[in-house]
Amino acid sequence: MKKMIRKAFKFRLNTTSEQSQKMIEFAGANRFVWNKALAMNLFRLEQKQPLLWYNELAFWLKLWKSSEDYGFLKTVHSQPLQQTLKNLEKAFKDGFDKKQSLKRVPRFKKKRASDSFRYPQGFKLEQESNKVFFPKIGWVKYRNSRQVIGDVKNMTISRKGKHWYVSIQTEYEAEIQHHKSTSMVGIDMGITRFATLSDGSYIEPLNSFRKLSKKLAFEQRKLSKKVRFSANWKKQKQIITRLHERIANARLDFLHKTSTEISKNHAMIVVEDLKVRNMSKSSKGNIEQPGKNVKAKSGLNKSILDQGWGMFVSFLEYKQAWSGGDVMRVNPQYTSQICPSCHHVSRDNRKSQSAFACTECGFKANADLVGALNVLERGHRLLACGVETLVSSVKQEPVGSSNTSLLLTA
Ligand SMILES: [Zn+2]
Hints:
This protein is an alpha+beta fold. The protein has two domains: 2-175, no CATH class; 184-393, Nucleotidyltransferase, domain 5 (2-Layer Sandwich). It is built from ten helices and 14 strands. It has helices at residues 17-46, 54-66, 78-94, 207-224, 231-265, 274-282, 292-295, 299-323, 367-385, 400-409; strands at 2-14, 116-119, 124-126, 131-134, 138-142, 151-160, 163-175, 184-189, 195-197, 202-203, 268-272, 326-330, 355-357, 364-366. The strands form three sheets. A seven-stranded antiparallel beta sheet has the order 2-6-7-1-5-4-3. A five-stranded mixed beta sheet has the order 10-9-8-11-12, with helices on both faces. It has a two-stranded antiparallel sheet with strand order 13-14. The longest helix is centred in the middle third of the chain and has 35 residues, at 231-265. Mean pLDDT is 83; it is low at 280-298 and 387-410. The structure holds zinc ion. Zinc ion (ZN) is lined by residues 339, 341-342, 344, 358, 360-361, 363.
């Protein structure tokens, strides 16, 4: 059996100033077309007239191009403009619910916040020489960090801060695989140990990360003492930006290595549902029963950790989808308080951050391992009867796009 896989590859573009100027103009023209067509449709909605769909909108686009007022649209390649109208059509269609009533209306695009446009065709990609071609812009160098695989379906140019990026969407057929392993594992995610597996192994948190976080906090304190927008302030801001990048890269590398390793060895991976976990744990103001040193951690540190777990799970998900395995999310509540041996539930079972000792049967183990065992047990129960409350289902499709976007948002 074969299935179609879609994947997105995102790279930073090394544009010349001329090219970025054109991109700014093109993005502006696309934003103009979007807002103009949206305004027309909103007006029609108000007047209880039927919406204009792509064909009619494309007709209007032609009129605008030949008009004196909007003649600047002629300098822009027509494909991205048409694509923008298609995107608008889709945004309207997605806004309808099952009963065909409009629940969500597309929004106007603001300058800079949404500077992007898509080429559905006309582009070229030369990976060996690290360049892409866009009609009316020309060849642009890009930071080639990995091989693009599959047939290129479209390319989207977008801006984040000062830089322009290209997102290359591809499609290819892949054999549906069966995972080489047949084993199933539960994972407990924590602070003193990044992840503990129900087979007894565990992953230490990234040490360099802790050092860098401390340095970041230090540099940020320094920034707060400087005069805003002064030369020194800008210099300090640069230092912080670079630190953020280093942290993001170190974390990404760590998450990729660890998730690859686990995905390789286990066909079924059971993890805690982080959404549920954050809800239930935040009310207590901490994660399970953190040690005293954990309490002292800054909110920033915690949020970076949280983000790390979320990324870790999403990496596991797409790697499993890739290799024919699966990821299951289970309700994490009380996983640290249930005895894996006699199922007695008590807060007192958890003697400390790291020690679990059952008050009923005397079962003793590392507390994180107990968590992982309980997570695994819930996975087994879910597989056996298919019922568990608060469980979100596993996505079937590999999410290549989220994978690559993570690279940049990290
Ligand atoms: Zn017990």
